[in-house]
Amino acid sequence: HLHVHVVPRRRGDGLRGFFWPRHPYRDDAQLEEVRAAIADAARK
Known about the structure:
- It is a single chain.
- This protein is mainly α.
- The protein contains one helix and no strands.
- It has one helix spanning 28-43.
- The longest helix is centred in the C-terminal third of the chain and has 16 residues, at 28-43.
């Protein structure tokens, strides 16, 4: 079993060490927006 994370990096992305800062979603609408963006990217 091999498990790999590919993490694209950008200046100012907030990644320190291996963990991003965790922030709650503003509301359910923002959660849905993020979910849809991930699903769209996965289809490409």
